[in-house]
Structure formats: structure tokens, C-alpha cells
Design goal:
Blueprint (H helix, E strand, L loop, with lengths): L1 H15 L2 H21 L4 H30 L2 H6 L5 H31 L5 H28 L3 H18 L11 H7 L3 H13 L8 H29 L4 H6 L3 H30 L5 H11 L1 H32 L9
Helix pairs in contact: 1-5, 2-3, 2-5, 3-5, 3-6, 3-7, 3-9, 5-6, 6-7, 6-9, 6-10, 9-10, 10-14, 12-13, 12-14, 13-14
Membrane topology: Multi-pass membrane protein
Organism: Kouleothrix aurantiaca
InterPro entries: ABC-2_transporter (IPR052902), ABC2_TM (IPR013525), ABC2_TM_bact-type (IPR047817), ABC_2_transport (IPR000412)
Length: 343
């Protein structure tokens, strides 16, 4: 716990000491609410919820996507993985720091709308909106990580994020009501993550009816978050497989024990994950040795867990098999041919 708190504090300080981050995280959304309030002062309460969602979306799909891609390009993530620091602590501290900043930004937007333009928000509505902002921020953070995992460079991550961000900004009921859009985009875009989040956040803050039941929007956001997580994990494994192109050269300079350890890790970790899953499923089915039956039960009862298991284990096995094949070919190349027997 102490390590997690120290890492969270360090992430917070890095964000607070960056002037560019401070401007885009605080000055820009506050300036945006001031601008919209000057143009449409009577609708500032309705617009404030949209600006909160817009800020969550931009922080995840633009800020985090480009930042994580830049860290990967500069090799920071690779160097961190070489340290004894657990990856779970690093990811949890990064997410916690980002969520704290997102909540502070949302509070600044709501506070500006209330203090400057007299927007009316009840304390009960603010309390109900707090967990919605946390869930929405987490979903957009996952979407940003998915963009970072598939983007080959920082500029590509920025381009992908902007290509998704700007259309969602105008068609997700943030500033323009869906009723004013044509029929086909209005019926389609109400299922975007930004539209579903604002459909839950706005009724919590204001006495307006919800377009859909909150449960449907919550399930939709959860699906977006799960898909983003699966995409990020699978793309990360893809980057790991791409690194195999230089593994043979690096392996030639390794000691035999270190090379064998590197290959065994690719089989040990996914095997441990599968063994744990089989053991857990067997506790409920009672049949510990019928592996096909357990696999069918897992796929039918917990398909999301089964997909995550496939994404996290199959690339490791493939990487290990490729390494073994290269090691076998290298061993045959170095093995001298038997001397010819004189006649």
C-alpha cells in the first residue's frame, strides 16, 4: 500500500508540474464553460454535464493515448518492466492519479457553472454523479490505452484520437441535442460511449428524463471498457510478437541459461494462468480431469473471462514456440557436421 501511495503521489506531481497539462486539464475546460455560458446562459446547467463528459473523453482519448505512446516510444515502459516494481502497482497508481485529476477538473467545471452563471445543482445530484464520473473516466482511460496500443507512433495516436474525438463531440448529445440531428445519425450515435455517459450524468445532475434506462447505459459503457481492455491486451501482445524480429540477434549474445530462462517464461506464465482457471472451474463442476467439459463451461458461463484468457495466453505460447524453433535452428547451425570416414 505504501508503494502504491508513493507512486500515485509521484504521478500527481508529474502532472501538476507540467504547464501544458495544467492548461489543457483546467484552463481549457473552464474557458469552454465560460464561453458557452456567455453565449447560452439559460442552458448552462444542461451544457455543464456535456462539458464534463467532453473533458473526460479528451483526457482519455487524446491525453492518455499520446502520453502512453510517447512513453513506449522512448522505452520508458520497457525499462520500468525490468525493475522489481510490480506492473499492477504501476498501472493502479497511474489510473488513480488520472482519476483524481479528472474528478478535480469535473469539480472545477461544475463549480464555475454554479458560481459564475448561477447553475443550480443539488448536493444529492452531485453525490450521485460522482461514481458516474469515475466510471466514465475509467472507460475513456481504457479507450485511450487501446488507442496507444495500436498506434505505431505518438503522431499516429494523436491522429487516431482526434479522428474519434471530434465526431463524438458533435453527435453525442453533449452540446447539440440529438433531436436536432437527422434521424439516422441520431439513432446511431446515442449508443456511443459519450452519449451513454451523458445520458446517465445529466439526469443525475438535473431534473431531466433519461432517454434510456440507466442499466442499459451502464452495460453499454462496461462493454466499451471491456472491448478496449481486450484490444489493449491483444495489441500489446502483438507488439511483443513484433519484437521477435530482433530476438535471434539478441539471443546469440546471451548465456545459454539466460536464453533458456527467457523461453521458459513464455510457457510458464500462460500455463500458470490456465492451471488457475481450470482449478477454479473444477471447484464448481466437480470434474477435475475433464478439460473439454471445463472449457465449454467457462466459454458458456463466463465468455468475457474466456476471451481475456485467450488474449493473455495464446500470444505467449506463440512467442515461446517461435523462440524454440529459432533456438533449434541455431543449435543445428552450430553443431559441426560429422567427419567423413576415410575409405
Amino acid at each position: 500500500m505504501k508503494r502504491f501511495l508513493i507512486l500515485t503521489k509521484a504521478n500527481m506531481l508529474m502532472n501538476m508540474r507540467n504547464r501544458t497539462t495544467l492548461f489543457w486539464n483546467f484552463a481549457f475546460p473552464i474557458g469552454l464553460i465560460m464561453l458557452y455560458g456567455a453565449i447560452w446562459p439559460d442552458a448552462i446547467s444542461w451544457l455543464a454535464a456535456g462539458i464534463v463528459v467532453l473533458n473526460l473523453m479528451s483526457s482519455g482519448m487524446l491525453g492518455d493515448a499520446t502520453r502512453l505512446t510517447d512513453l513506449r516510444e522512448r522505452g520508458v515502459l520497457r525499462r520500468v518492466r525490468a525493475t522489481p516494481l510490480p506492473a499492477a502497482h504501476l498501472i493502479a497508481s497511474y489510473v488513480a492519479a488520472r482519476l483524481v485529476l479528472l474528478l478535480a477538473q469535473s469539480a472545477a467545471i461544475i463549480g464555475t457553472a454554479a458560481l459564475v452563471y448561477g447553475a443550480q445543482f443539488s448536493w444529492g445530484g452531485l453525490v450521485a454523479a460522482l461514481p458516474l464520473a469515475v466510471v466514465g473516466g475509467l472507460v475513456f482511460l481504457l479507450l485511450g490505452q487501446a488507442i496507444a496500443s495500436v498506434a505505431p507512433s505518438t503522431s499516429a495516436a494523436a491522429a487516431i484520437g482526434q479522428a474519434l474525438y471530434f465526431p463524438l463531440m458533435f453527435v453525442s448529445n453533449l452540446f447539440i441535442p440529438l433531436e436536432q440531428l437527422p434521424a439516422w445519425p441520431g439513432n446511431t450515435t446515442r449508443w456511443t460511449p459519450a452519449a451513454m455517459l451523458v445520458a446517465m450524468l445529466r439526469p443525475a445532475l438535473l431534473p431531466v428524463p433519461a432517454a434510456h434506462p440507466a442499466a442499459i447505459n451502464a452495460i453499454g459503457l462496461a462493454c466499451y471498457g471491456l472491448l478496449a481492455l481486450v484490444l489493449a491486451l491483444s495489441a500489446f501482445q502483438g507488439w511483443q510478437l513484433a519484437r521477435l524480429r530482433g530476438w535471434r540477434t539478441r539471443a546469440r549474445a546471451m548465456a545459454p541459461r539466460r536464453r533458456a530462462l527467457g523461453m521458459s517464461v513464455n510457457f510458464a506464465i500462460p500455463s500458470a494462468i490456465l492451471a488457475l482457471a481450470v482449478w477454479q472451474v473444477a471447484r464448481f463442476t466437480g470434474d477435475r480431469f475433464n478439460l473439454p467439459y471445463q472449457a465449454r463451461m467457462l466459454w458458456s458461463q463466463l465468455p468475457d473471462v474466456a476471451i481475456l484468457m485467450l488474449v493473455s495466453t495464446v500470444p505467449d505460447y506463440a512467442q515461446g514456440c517461435v523462440k524454440l524453433w529459432w533456438a533449434f535452428r541455431e543449435h543445428r547451425r552450430r553443431t559441426p557436421a560429422p567427419a567423413a570416414v576415410p575409405a
